[in-house]
């Protein structure tokens, strides 16, 4: 059939490498007057407007975003769609908060209709916030995965998700009835959804965290993952000091808390661990050695009083750990990756390590994509990548407008102002696979592909 072509003009920023390792100059690409041409969902050209304009086919209108910054769509490397109904629940630390708010809400997802509503709201909210890919926790019920993948396919988004595995220390109705059944359901979902033609869905094996899983569950999860090396493995680790203490008691045979996962074959490239606040330097070594990545969840770690993730220790160039940025809603308090960058900056500041805008945007795009082993597909505006991008408006609010007009105009300064002052309001438009799926102020984009 005919090719689908879209073209946009604006200030382009993306990353081709890790600025924590190679520095800003070698890692960042910046095109002040740039052009992006998308053909059939992929980026066919990204570079200077003048050099590229001749390649835009006749009849294709170039959308003018010259006053905006265009970056790869944000990649949220850890978030719970099933927690959109209980986000911002007052006053508890992790374990009590799980019992009081998370698990009761999770049980509501046994109702398919309720799950569908949650999935629809979640996907729309991601797009309104400029997030085009996420690694998503669901509930234990297989249909809670079905409805999410179904919605993601509707919007054409690249989403990774999986059924939660948990067989202890939570209400009976939320637990897997047996390890065998949990594995059978997981296999069924992988066959049904993983890299399914016509979708961009990716499966992730999801043991909730060591406190909610028996040895048998972790063993079988590790075995199953070995059979499907292209799926991801996603869990929580060392978020909270009490969690680590309880985990050490439940698995006294493991040398460290992180070794609970390693000993069950759950640490390698493709593993994404949420939080990692209380990992020791030795455990960070293990992440580096195995290729396991960490999702940094600053708004959540502050909201639940979990602690301050030591990004500098994780990214130290002598043994770097792959790190992505994540909202962790509903432990996190915002689905905006800009707001999340803001909080990551402050967490760094408290640690004597304020993170510059370039590194914040890296973590929210290519960093998270690398954590999810998707950096060859998303997280970049490099030619050949999937055309997921976000258009950010430095004049979105009076304060942003004033601030960016008063600043020095450098891309570093504009990005920093957007990260610290922006949220969904700063998202002018969101594109998925070359199609605009969100336009600020408009009710809903018509699906016209
Ligand atoms: N640890 C285990 N489950 C959860 C969860 O749902 N949210 C957070 N923040 N931590 C967890
Ligand atoms: Zn979480």
From TrEMBL:
- E.C. number, please? 3.5.4.3
Q: In which pathway does it act?
A: Purine metabolism; guanine degradation; xanthine from guanine: step 1/1
Q: Could you say which residues of the full protein are shown?
A: 34 to 482 of 777
Q: What class of enzyme is it?
A: hydrolase
Say yes or no: keyword Metal-binding present. yes
Q: Which UniProt keywords apply?
A: Hydrolase, Metal-binding, Zinc
Q: Which cofactor does it need?
A: Zn(2+)
Source domain of life: Bacteria
The similarity annotation says: Belongs to the metallo-dependent hydrolases superfamily. ATZ/TRZ family.
This one is known as Guanine deaminase
| Residues spanning the signal sequence | none
For molecular function, the Gene Ontology terms on record are: guanine deaminase activity; zinc ion binding
What sequence ranges are listed for the domain Amidohydrolase-related? 69-437
Q: Would you kindly state one Gene Ontology biological process term found in this protein's UniProt entry? A: guanine catabolic process
Q: Which GO terms describe its cellular component?
A: cytosol
């Amino acid at each position: 059939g005919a090719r689908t072509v879209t073209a946009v003009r604006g200030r382009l920023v993306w990353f081709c490498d890790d600025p924590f390792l190679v520095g800003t100059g070698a890692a960042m690409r910046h095109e002040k007057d740039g052009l992006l041409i998308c053909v059939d969902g992929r980026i066919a050209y990204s570079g200077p407007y003048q050099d590229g304009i001749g390649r835009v086919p006749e009849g294709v209108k170039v959308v003018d975003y010259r006053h905006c910054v265009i970056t790869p769509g944000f990649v949220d490397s850890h978030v719970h769609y099933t927690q959109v109904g209980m986000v911002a629940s007052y006053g508890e630390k992790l374990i009590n908060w799980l019992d009081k708010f998370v698990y009761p809400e999770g049980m509501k997802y046994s109702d398919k209709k309720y799950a569908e509503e949650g999935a629809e709201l979640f996907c729309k909210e991601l797009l309104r916030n400029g997030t085009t890919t996420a690694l998503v926790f669901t509930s234990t019920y297989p249909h809670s995965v079905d409805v999410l993948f179904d919605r993601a396919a509707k919007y054409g988004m690249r989403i990774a998700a999986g059924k939660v595995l948990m067989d202890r220390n939570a209400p009976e109705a939320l637990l897997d009835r047996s390890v065998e059944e949990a594995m059978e359901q997981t296999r069924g979902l992988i066959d049904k959804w993983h890299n399914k033609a016509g979708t961009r869905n990716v499966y992730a094996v999801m043991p909730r965290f060591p406190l909610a899983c028996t040895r048998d569950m972790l063993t079988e999860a590790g075995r199953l993952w070995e059979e499907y090396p292209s799926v991801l493995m996603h869990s929580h680790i060392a978020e909270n000091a009490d969690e680590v203490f309880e985990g050490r008691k439940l698995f006294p045979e493991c040398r460290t808390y992180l070794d609970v996962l390693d000993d069950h074959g759950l640490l390698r490239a493709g593993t994404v661990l949420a939080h990692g606040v209380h990992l020791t330097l030795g455990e960070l070594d293990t992440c580096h050695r195995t290729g396991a990545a960490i999702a940094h969840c600053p708004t959540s770690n502050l909201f639940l009083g979990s602690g301050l993730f030591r990004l500098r220790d994780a990214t130290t160039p002598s043994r770097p750990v792959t790190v992505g940025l994540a909202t962790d809603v509903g432990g996190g308090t915002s689905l905006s990756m800009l707001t999340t960058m803001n909080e990551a900056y402050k967490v760094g500041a408290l640690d004597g390590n304020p993170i510059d805008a370039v590194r914040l945007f890296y973590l929210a795009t290519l960093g998270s994509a690398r954590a999810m082993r998707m950096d060859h597909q998303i997280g970049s505006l490099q030619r050949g990548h999937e055309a997921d991008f976000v258009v950010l408006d430095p004049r979105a609010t009076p304060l942003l407008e004033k601030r960016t007009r008063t600043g020095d105009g450098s891309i570093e300064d504009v990005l920093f102002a957007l990260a610290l002052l922006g949220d969904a309001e700063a998202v002018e438009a969101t594109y998925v696979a070359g199609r605009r799926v969100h336009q600020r102020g408009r009710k809903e984009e018509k699906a016209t592909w």
